[in-house]
Structure formats: C-alpha cells, structure tokens
Write a structure and sequence with these properties.
The complex is a heterodimer.
Chain A lengths: L4 E6 L4 E14 L2 E5 L6 E5 L2 E7 L4 E14 L2 E9 L1
Chain B lengths: L2 H58 L15 E7 L9 H18 L3 E7 L1 H9 L6 E3 L8 H16 L11 E9 L5 E9 L17 E3 L2 H83 L1
Helix pairs in contact in B: 1-5, 4-5
Classes of the chains: A mainly beta, B alpha/beta.
Chain lengths: 85, 302
C-alpha cells in the first residue's frame, strides 16, 4: 500500500516523536495489536510496555510507554503516554 | 555637606539599590515567560489528543460513567485555585483568589457546600489568615510545575470526586478549577471552569465529524482510564498557563517598580541639586555679608 501512517508519540510535557510509519505494534489490555495503514478507527488502552514503530524509511523505533493510549483514525495514529522513554 | 543634602543622597542610594533588584527580577521573569510559554505549547499536543479521545468516547458511547453524569442532587463542590508561591507579581494571586471567591459565592447560591483545594502559598496564606477551611493544599512549585505535581493534585481531586458525597464527608459532586489564562504577554485573565462532570465543549478541540471508533477493550474501560488522564492533563495545562501568567504579571509589576524608581531617582536628584545650590548660595551670601561687615567695621574705626 502506498499510504503510510502518520504517527505521533506524545507525553504530557512534549511531543516525543512524530513521523511516517509502515506499521505499529503495541500491547493493549486485551493483547497485542498491529496497526497497518487503513486500520479502522480505534481507541485503546495500552498496557505498560513497549510500542514499536516501523518507520517508513525502514528503521524502527521503540518506546516504553506507561499509562498510555492509542488512537487510530484516517491513518493518523496517536500514542499517548504518561511517561515515555 | 548640609543635613538636607545628606538626607537626599541617602534616599537616592536606597532607591537605586531597590531599582537594581526590581530590574533584575524583571529580566529574570521576562526570560522565564518564554520558557513557560514553550512548555504550554509543548503540552498542547497531548492535551488536544486527550480531549479528542474523551470527546469521542463520551459522545459516541452510551456508557454512563460517574465522571460524566452530573449528580441529580449535588451537595458539595470542590474548587481548585491556582496561585503563586511568591509575591511581587502585582495583583496576579489576588485576581485568582477573587475569581475563586466569586465562584464559591455562585456555588453557595446554588445550595452547594464548597471544599477549597489550593495551589500556591499565596492562596494558602489568604485562607489561613481568614480562618477558612482548606481541604487540600500544595505549595512550592507554582513557577515551574511538572506533570508529577499535576498528577498529585488530580489524584486528590479525583478521589474526592469518586467518593460518594452523601456518605463521605470529603466527597464532592462537582469539580471546578480557577486558574489564570495566559492570553498574551500583556493579557492574563483569571478564569473559572468546571472540570467535572465533564462538559466536553473544548473550543481548541479539532472540529469535524468524529470517526466511529472501536474501543479496546470496551468503551467503559477506555473511559475509566482516559478520564483521570484527562483531568491530569487539564490541571497540568492550567498550572502551566498559570505559571506563564505569574511570570508575565511579575515582569509587569517589576517593570513599573523599576520605572517608578527611575522617576523617584530623578526627582530626588533635582531636590538634591536644589539643596546643594541653596547651600552654596547661602555660603556665598554669608561670606559676602561677613566681608561687608568687616569692611564697614574697619571703615568705621579709621
């Protein structure tokens, strides 16, 4: 698919990371989910743990998220974390 | 040097020393406003995303969550007032406290008892001096709050809100916040807002139709963990704006203090000059008078 996901990782104090990505995998309270472009709108509570992002340029990014959420709509993904590192 | 002149000189020295202090405080505040503003800006993506998400859940799901449904018979309301720890900021703290008083009066008219939660030493002192009851207070971070502070305050508020107001002495049905909105470098407005029960009509929330979200694990669960975060983000944002406003108010107060000191120094300099001139004139006339007296005395003896 040609389109990418526009991803933002934000913490209360600042925007931690933003960019284009091919895929995101995260762990919600119910289990692991993967988000690809074209995913249905989703609002999920994240379990504490790693969120990994496959960046469009082929590299990958990992964030340790505590007390976080993921929201997906129209290929826009926001990952909110109370603490991210 | 005459006594008068010495008095003027001494006053000038003291005013000059004061001016140095106020000037320094003005410059410090000016540099901190920028930093505080940047922190407000940096926190807004998170707050906006949360607002969006909360709006989505609250408006799309039919779940009745205690945090979103107003109590039919509200008894008590909590009022969180955010002020400064230190003075020297003009009317900044007082304006917020007064706004809080107005809100409390309005709530009382509706028949609600109020619980005061205070941030900043100024509000605490104000309440303590008047012997008013304080439900909770936090001090020591008003000019540079971080998220942990906001979390601490929010936890106390949410705990009070969740407790049943009918049975628990400290439980509240409504939650209000009074803070100082940072409009610009010159305008800061004390503002009272209701945080809970939720009214999700944020003007800064992105407009447009909200997509039909799927909730993971389910809407109630999402709302459960989303709302405390939302309150924390709101409190944090209010604290950051208040901090920026505090610096702006202090800068303005210190600027006018510096200007006044300048004025005072100018008029004191004039007075001192006049006193010096008068002294010289008097000395001259004394000398001339003395010389005249000598001349006429010696003329008379010959």
């Amino acid at each position: 698919m040609a389109t990418n996901l526009t991803v933002e990782v934000v913490s209360p104090e600042k925007r931690v990371w933003s960019g284009e990505a091919k895929m995101i995998s995260a762990r919600t309270l119910e289990g692991d989910i993967g988000v690809l472009p074209g995913h249905a709108p989703l609002l999920g509570v994240l379990a504490d743990g790693m969120v990994s992002i496959k960046v469009a340029d082929g590299t990958s990014q990992e964030f340790n998220i505590h007390g976080g959420f993921i929201s997906v709509s129209n290929n826009r993904v926001s990952i909110l974390g109370e603490s991210t590192d | 040097m005459g006594a008068q002149l010495r008095v003027y000189r001494r006053r000038m020295r003291s005013v000059k020393a004061t001016k140095k202090i106020t000037k320094a405080m003005e410059l410090i505040s000016a540099s901190r406003i920028v930093k505080a503003q940047q922190r407000v800006a940096a926190s807004s993506p998170y707050a906006n995303e949360l607002t969006r998400a909360v709006t989505a859940v609250a408006s799309l799901s039919s779940t009745n969550h205690p945090l979103t449904t107003p109590s039919e018979t509200p008894r008590r309301a909590a009022v969180l007032i955010i002020t400064a720890d230190r003075g020297m900021a003009g009317a900044y703290s007082n304006a917020a406290i007064k706004e809080g008083d107005q809100l409390i009066t309005a709530l009382r008219e509706r028949g609600l008892a109020t619980e005061a939660y205070l941030v900043g030493r100024k509000a605490v002192n104000y309440y303590r001096f008047r012997g008013r009851k304080i439900a909770g207070s936090w001090t020591g971070f008003s000019d540079n709050p971080n998220y942990a502070h906001a979390k601490e305050v929010s936890e106390a508020l949410i705990a009070a809100f969740i407790a049943d107001a009918e049975t628990v002495e400290t439980g509240v049905d409504e939650l209000h916040i009074v803070y100082t909105q940072f409009k610009s470098m010159i305008t800061q407005i004390p503002e009272a807002r209701r945080m809970l029960p939720l009214e999700v009509v944020e003007s800064d929330a992105p407009a447009g139709l909200l997509p039909m979200y799927e909730f993971e694990p389910n809407a109630a669960e999402v709302l459960n963990s989303l709302l405390p975060r939302y309150i924390e983000a709101r409190v944090f944002n209010a604290m950051l704006q208040s901090a920026a406003s505090e610096h702006a108010a202090r800068r303005r107060a210190m600027k006018s203090a510096t200007d006044n000191a300048d004025e005072l120094i100018k008029s004191l300099t004039r007075l001192a000059n006049a006193a010096r001139q008068a002294e010289i004139t008097q000395e001259i006339s004394e000398i001339v008078g003395g010389a005249d007296a000598l001349a006429s005395a010696s003329a008379g003896s010959e």
